[in-house]
Write a structure and sequence with these properties.
Largest sheet: 11 strands, mixed
Strand content: 25-35%
Number of helices: 15
Number of strands: 30
């Protein structure tokens, strides 16, 4: 985290604060049936980890300002428990949206219900929501609620202060930091490190008086539609991500174990470069279809400023999708963009939006532009910027949105997005039933396609500033797509100090590996958050993952469950990591890593 003073908190008046929370399955208790769907009967449930911070900070500020904190959730009768926990922590009361009519709600239907409940309960000065939901790994409810409520939004809040009606916020993004000022009222999504989480044992939850929880039925919110009827996305085929591990634990000296490990890695193909599967077969792309006689389908691509590679990934995917539809690709970019590069990447046309590219204002500009330029689909990056722009567009257009997709395809003329869920335990195919389809895609998961020779048509459109969010400073400390593209990754735990990372360089160089870290490491500031792997970090799927000096607890290992091969090194033979690896070396990493590098050099020399 950047060095800075603690934000000042001066409350001029009591604040009415709302916290929007969600009940989710406990990660370790998730079990999938033969159909690939989650078995919900008897499953252990808890409050979403990010929501715990929303409750904690909401209660803190309500007390300090002399105001109140009301907690909202939408869910089945069991969700009453998370409201009781929040009230036991100190929230004034809970509001439970519980009705069979809410069943099947996607993120937009959920946001509509919550926005309507906020209005029903009266105006709030501040609405806090968790950065994302760990079961669905999506962060779009916050910006959708903000759009529906007509409020400014900021995401990943790590530090927050207030003077008068202005919030001073430090935002923690996947690969950098941003400092902004936001005018109240506002919606904020909070980061994991904002504060200590709210957590209350079951006995204290049971003591919460029933009258502190208000039950709200769908009819109280109006005509709707609610639930599945108001959900413009549909879940199709789901498939479990099974990764049985070999669990071979080696013995002998460090040199003997290293030599055997390298031989096993070679046998498993873990030392061979892998080729990513493209979205669709790429047989060389010519110029865009001229005088289009086919589909009117226009696939727009949101080009985030200062992320050229992510933009190229999305343009390449869009061009393949558009080709199968006979459609065209339209890049939505900003002043200063390299037009020729966009054309080479797949854009048939480019619209540059003129003005400061603040997410709220960009979303409004694209919504206005799309009224004159009908769109079939919009692709954007799964970044703070992309999620807010497309989330606001989804709410503003009433459109279906799939967040954090890892694959795209056209099936029977429809756009299907593959999305991981339940901490990567399964992947679901999701499609939209609305006229416009919105998808954010994880940076780094789509292949880069060969450039073409094409000069796109260019137009411009103004951005009208609302000035409710003011950017004070920005800093990037990594690139969000690096780990996603890495074929080999070395993961480090807190047992390795940052001054020892250089000792890993010979092994990393031989493997062509990038460095990843556990949450403890990033909490200490030893690695940027973009390198955090696990349930509240990144999920990655390298060909080879080498776990060094980390215990292997669920919250970290869930982030590498899709790795092709896992090699673990730990001097504790009872470390949990050895039950989740393919090859295990028992030993001190200081000794094992040089031995691995030496054995790997010999293997590569033989080739």
């Amino acid at each position: 985290m950047p060095e800075e003073d603690v934000p000042v908190c001066r409350f001029d008046r009591p604040l009415r604060i709302a916290a929007l929370i969600k009940q989710i399955p406990v990660g370790e208790s998730m079990t999938l049936g033969e159909d690939g769907r989650l078995i919900r009967e008897g499953i252990e449930l808890e409050m979403n980890a990010y929501c715990r911070r929303a409750v904690s900070k909401g209660v803190e500020w309500a007390r300090e300002s002399g105001g109140s904190c009301t907690v909202f959730t939408l869910g089945p009768p069991s969700a009453d428990d998370v409201l009781r926990e929040a009230v036991a922590w100190g929230a004034d009361r809970g509001v439970h949206l519980c009705d069979p009519a809410f069943g099947g709600s996607d993120t937009l239907a959920t946001a509509r219900s919550l926005a309507a409940a906020l209005q029903l309960e009266g105006g709030f000065d501040l609405v806090l929501v968790g950065r994302n939901s760990l079961d669905g790994d999506t962060g779009q409810v916050g910006p959708e609620v903000a759009q529906l409520a007509g409020l400014p939004f900021a995401t990943g809040v790590r530090e927050m202060g207030i003077e008068g009606e202005v919030l001073s916020l430090t935002l923690e993004h996947d690969d950098g930091w941003e400092e902004v000022d936001v005018t109240l009222p506002a919606v904020l999504s909070v980061a994991e490190r904002l504060c200590e989480p709210s957590k209350v044992p079951p006995a204290q939850r049971a003591d919460v008086p029933a009258e502190r929880i208000r039950l709200v039925r769908a009819a109280a919110l109006g005509a709707g539609p609610w639930g599945q009827a108001g959900s413009p996305t549909v879940v199709g085929r789901t498939r479990a991500m099974h990764h049985d591990r070999a669990g071979k634990i080696l013995s002998g000296t460090a040199a003997e174990q290293a030599a055997e490990a390298v031989a096993l890695l070679a046998e498993r193909g873990a030392l061979e470069a892998a080729t990513p599967d493209p979205v669709a077969p790429v047989a060389g792309r010519g110029p865009a279809p001229q005088g289009s006689s086919g589909s009117s389908a226009v696939i727009a691509v949101l080009i985030e400023p200062d992320r050229p590679q992510v933009g190229m990934e999305l343009l390449g995917a869009a061009s393949e999708l558009a080709a199968s539809l006979g459609g065209r690709v339209h890049a939505l970019a900003f002043e200063g963009v390299a037009i020729d590069a966009l054309g080479a990447g797949g854009a048939d046309a480019v619209t540059t939006f003129t003005g400061a590219p603040l997410a709220e204002d960009v979303a409004a500009a694209i919504i206005g532009w799309s009224a004159e330029n009908p769109l079939w689909a919009v692709l954007g990056p799964s970044t703070a910027f992309g999620r807010e722009v497309l989330g606001r567009m989804a709410a503003g257009l009433g459109a279906g949105m799939v967040g954090d997709a890892i694959g795209l395809a056209i099936t029977e003329g429809e756009l299907v997005a593959a999305k991981p869920a339940f901490s990567g335990a399964l992947v679901a195919d999701i499609f939209c039933t609305s006229d416009v389809r919105l998808v954010t895609v994880r940076p780094g998961v789509l292949p880069l396609v060969p450039p073409r020779d094409h000069t796109p048509d260019v137009s411009s459109w103004p951005i009208t500033p609302r000035s409710r969010v003011r950017v004070v400073s920005q800093r990037r400390d990594d690139d969000v797509e690096v780990l996603a593209r890495a074929e080999a990754v070395i993961g480090v735990g807190a047992a390795l100090r940052p001054d020892e990372y250089e000792d890993l360089s010979p092994l990393a160089s031989l493997l062509g590996a990038e460095l990843a870290a556990t949450r403890k490491v990033t909490d200490k500031g030893w690695a940027p958050r973009a390198r955090q792997v696990g349930i509240t970090g990144r999920s990655i799927a390298p060909r080879l993952y080498v776990a060094l000096g980390l215990s292997g607890k669920f919250n970290h290992m869930v982030g590498v469950r899709a790795a092709g091969t896992i090699l673990a090194v730990n001097e504790d033979p009872g470390a949990p990591v050895f039950s989740q690896c393919d090859i295990g070396i028992v030993g001190d990493w200081h000794v094992v890593v040089p031995a691995l590098a030496a054995a790997l050099r010999e293997e590569l020399h033989r080739r």
